[in-house]
Amino acid sequence: MRAAASAASFVAALALAIAADALAAPASPKPPRLKGTVVVVNQKSDTITLVDLATLEAYRHVPVVGGPHEAAASPDGRTVVVTNYNKPGAPQKTLSVIALPSGETLRTIDLGEYAMPHDVRWVDAERVVCTVEADSALLVVNVNDGRVERVFQTGNRGSHMLALSEDRKRLYCSNMGGGSVSAFDFESGAKLKDIPTGKECEGVGVSLDGRWVWAGNRAEDTISIIDTGSLEVVKRLESPGFPYRVQFSPDGKHALIPHARASSLVVCDVAGQRIARSIPLGLTKVEQPSTAGVCPHPGGRYAFVTVRNDDSMLVLDLSQGTTVARIPVQSSPDGVTYSPVGR
Questions:
Q1: Which CATH class is domain 35-339?
Q2: Is the pLDDT of residue 229 over 90?
Q3: 17 pLDDT exceeds 80?
Q4: Amino acid 32: pLDDT
Q5: What are the extents of the domains in the chain?
Q6: Exposed e or buried b per residue across 128-165, where buried means at least 16 C-beta atoms within 10 angstroms of its C-beta
């Protein structure tokens, strides 16, 4: 009897221990239920990858001209423009215009004398603005007929990334060569000021209310905050790990800044002008993932982050600070954009 009771006690204790271990073990990330399409730009594959958010699967790899870096989806989400920037020894000079969700190439825009288009934003339903780094300029391009409608001269080397205010009144550009941000009156075309920020200023974004420009100075691991009224740097944050891009959350409360050498996405409090948290990248196949592009989902909870040396796009849960999905794409993904239009 005692042996039977002892065995029963052992089995009960073992069951309790297993249950406790199960409760203590970290739960597998729950894939989000989202809709739409994410477009990932693959630099070395000369492609873009289309990701179906409903299934979290890459459903098509679309060839583009070459050396692509950034992409932007149109206001209605049915068209994406991709910048063909540079291949070794061969600066590019085209924009690829692609239909969503099919991935059909609608047209290729030749920019003529202008070379190395890098960043791009939609102005309205017919026009985009892009940087052309080789010419130290920004162009307004009509997507339907390919005409260059306006040229903004930056007068600076390495005019790389850009930001356009929500009201379409201000245009900003980062200059890696001079470590500055150029500010333009978008309506008149006049350059207002070159604002010194820090070494190799690359990522740049303007807050949704138009009051602040945040800029990442990758070579000195700092973030500069510019008051758009005075066009002066009012605060500089130390942020180690190569601050690379700047995007703002849909509610305007946070600046999302990938850090390429810190394997993280840094989330900043815009009102408090401070770093709120650093979210480490998970689920990757490499030990030190290189964070590249970022695009928030309109719902605000999730963000899409590309990882250059992992050939992947991650879905990050910003509220929990976790990685909830990894989608394989192609070689050296960088730019990323979202469209509400799904398959």
A1: mainly beta
A2: yes
A3: no
A4: 84
A5: 35-339
A6: bbbbbbbbbbbbbbebeebebeeebebebebbbbbbbb
